[in-house]
Specification:
- The protein contains 3 helices and 6 strands.
- The protein is an alpha+beta fold.
- A 4-stranded antiparallel beta sheet has the order 1-2-6-3. The chain has a two-stranded antiparallel ribbon with strand order 4-5.
- It is globular.
Amino acid sequence: MNAYDVIKRPLVTEKVVEAQASSNTVAFEVDTRANKIEIKKAVEEIWKVNVTGVRTMVVRGKVKRFGARLGKRSNWKKAYVTLGAGEKIDLFTA
């Protein structure tokens, strides 16, 4: 997998924006098969920053109703990436 296959999209929520301001942590939706080492290398390659830590979790899909039937949304993987001191990723610029 290349770096752009590992990182699917950045997550921008109130919780993530606050974590970015307070503890220099950003969150991404990543490939479910990716491990912490691959995520670290991908972030360092794409944004040219120093990564000090990676925490991952699998977000379980919710059971939802689709008309008369029950269905389940897909599971997905979330990664919280802690950047080194003085490092920054600006997710809102091109």
